[in-house]
């Protein structure tokens, strides 16, 4: 990974056009070829970027650019769409390369992983008489936390979160859309399970026919009394 802090201007051309005027920014060129342009705000989100598959080439600035102070030009071109990110670099303030090695991938929060395991052992909380089909049930866009069947054999996809928000509902919605295409599973019901479900997430889930299950983590571990509530 190459990290460059530079005074630069950036232009994106292709399916849309965007311009970033001259300012000091962080340019992140990753090993997968992608380039991200960051400012000192906006948290993790870049101002602009080019995703792989893409290729970065360094060019000499044109005569007019050079007279304006441009020292180097980066052109990052997407190999499938032809979209291009053109970076005019006026001054490089910092330039380093780092080998990050192989990333082990995201590991779920310990409580969230425990919730999933405990719920898999206590599937009656999802539906009376339910049986577990599989944990981490695979789909083309990632695994569903739990797949169960109720006493009538209806398939239920369960997404487990520590704190349930709108993103989790959207994630489960995408899973349900894919799983519903499988004739061996359809129709598939959805259950959104979490220790805490935000009001907006509950409204969205119920509007889409997804049931919300509030989990009592301590009770599921058998530490104290209390019952999860299915709404």
From TrEMBL:
Pfam families: NucS_C, NucS_N. Transmembrane segments: none annotated. CDD domains: NucS-like (cd22341). Residues 2-104 form the Endonuclease NucS N-terminal PH-like domain. Its main location: cytoplasm. It is an enzyme of class 3 (hydrolase). Residues 111-230 form the Endonuclease NucS C-terminal domain. Keywords: Cytoplasm, DNA-binding, Endonuclease, Hydrolase, Nuclease. The keyword DNA-binding applies. Its EC number is 3.1.-.-. GO terms for molecular function: endonuclease activity. InterPro entries: Endonuclease_NucS (IPR002793), NucS_C (IPR048301), NucS_N (IPR048302), NucS_N_sf (IPR049173), tRNA_endonuc-like_dom_sf (IPR011856). It is found in: Cytoplasm. The keyword Acetylation does not apply. PANTHER family: ENDONUCLEASE NUCS. HAMAP family: NucS (MF_00722). Cleaves both 3' and 5' ssDNA extremities of branched DNA structures. Belongs to the NucS endonuclease family. This is Endonuclease NucS. It comes from Microbacterium capsulatum. The lineage of its organism: Bacteria, Bacillati, Actinomycetota, Actinomycetes, Micrococcales. The gene is nucS.
């Amino acid at each position: 990974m190459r990290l460059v802090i530079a005074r630069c201007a950036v232009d994106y051309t292709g399916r849309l056009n965007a311009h970033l005027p001259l300012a000091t920014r962080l340019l992140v060129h990753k090993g997968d070829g992608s380039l991200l342009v960051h400012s000192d705000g906006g948290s993790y989100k870049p101002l602009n970027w080019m995703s792989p598959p893409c290729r970065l080439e360094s060019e000499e600035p044109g005569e007019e650019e050079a007279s304006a102070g441009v020292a180097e030009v980066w052109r990052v071109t997407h190999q499938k769409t032809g979209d291009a990110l053109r970076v005019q670099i006026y001054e490089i303030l910092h330039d380093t390369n780092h080998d990050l090695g192989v990333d082990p991938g995201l590991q779920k929060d310990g409580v969230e992983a425990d919730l999933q395991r405990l719920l898999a052992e206590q599937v009656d909380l999802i539906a009376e008489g339910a049986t577990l089909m599989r944990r981490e049930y695979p789909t083309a866009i990632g695994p569903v936390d739990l797949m169960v069947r109720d006493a009538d054999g209806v398939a239920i996809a369960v997404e487990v979160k520590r704190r349930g928000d709108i993103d989790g509902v959207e994630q489960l919605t995408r899973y349900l859309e894919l799983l519903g295409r499988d004739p061996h599973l359809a129709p598939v019901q959805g259950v959104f399970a979490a220790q805490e479900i935000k009001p907006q997430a509950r409204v969205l889930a119920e509007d889409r026919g997804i049931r919300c299950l509030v989990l009592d983590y301590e009770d599921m571990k058998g530490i104290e009394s209390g019952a999860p509530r299915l709404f």
